[in-house]
Design a protein that fits this description.
It is a single chain. This protein has 95 residues and is mainly alpha-helical. Helices cover 36% and strands 4% of the residues. It has helices at residues 5-14, 24-42, 73-77; strands spanning 83-84, 87-88. Strands 1-2 form a two-stranded antiparallel sheet. A hairpin with a 2-residue loop joins β1 and β2 (87-88). α1 (5-14) crosses α2 (24-42). It is flat. The chain starts with a helix and ends in a 7-residue tail after the last strand.
């Protein structure tokens, strides 16, 4: 599938990318080559191939999911610019 300059202009607009008018033919050529590569990939038989989640066959380390009571109010509020009665104090924004 070939991309023309009008389609390249539209794609650039949708992607919110400013492309100068003189660069549109080159962009159209690059987009056409990407689509050609995608068409080439579609010809590969992937029947029976399990999808990959990673390029390395490693399991992620998992931590034990334990509930705690937190009890770290003083540590959490230590960096707050203004804290009152165990809570973050923020400026009033609604009148």
């Amino acid at each position: 599938m070939a991309i023309d300059t009008d389609t390249a202009r539209r794609v650039a607009h949708l992607a919110r990318i400013r492309v100068e008018e003189e660069n549109l033919p080159e962009l159209a050529k690059e987009l056409s080559s990407v689509l050609a590569f995608m068409e080439q990939l579609n010809e590969v038989d992937t029947q029976g191939v399990e999808p990959m989640t990673s390029v390395t066959p490693m399991a992620l380390k998992r931590r034990v999911d334990e509930m705690t009571d937190g009890d770290r109010v003083d540590d959490i509020l230590a960096n707050a610019p203004d804290a009152r009665e165990g809570f973050f104090a923020v400026p009033k924004v609604v009148e």
